[in-house]
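Quarterly update from the structural biology core.
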Amino acid sequence: MRLRQHIGFVWWMVAIALVSCSAPGKVSHPASVQNPKSQLQSVSLSGKKIVMGQTIYVPIYSHIYHYNSPDHVMDLSATLSVRNTDTASSIILTTVKYYDTDGQLVRQDIDDPVALKPLASTRFFIAADDTRGGSGASYIVEWVSEKTVTAPVIEAVMINTAGGQGLSFVSSGRILQEHGSKK
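Predicted structure, tokenized:
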């Protein structure tokens, strides 16, 4: 009887915790599946004078090979992180596109230019079971600014925690092209 009471108490506490986590106005989804577009404000580039910007290439590893054979594949989740390092000015993301190993567009994560406020960051998530990118996937991120700003940090974090042992690593973005007048 005592065990039943204890189990009933535990279930009651779990139910209270679940209800309190999903209070009205709160998002109950993990941060990894929330839509980052909701935190970004659409902007128009019409009539704006672009002073600077960059096109950035970020390697993404949707999976990696392990052991002694290319038949052994470890799927990875990936988070592309874009961080505005400027303390005073916003930057505008104009392109966030995910490409597969063959250079084919898999998805476009923003449809219109969006502003990223000073010191703000956003992310774009690829689930471990989304293997469309392959081992040679990549992101192309383009950003611009109406003022001279410090360049954002754009990188990806890949992770796999299956099998009780974790694996994670970071892939830094590389500048492909500079934009604007930089005056």
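The CA atoms of residues 92 and 115 lie 4 Å apart.
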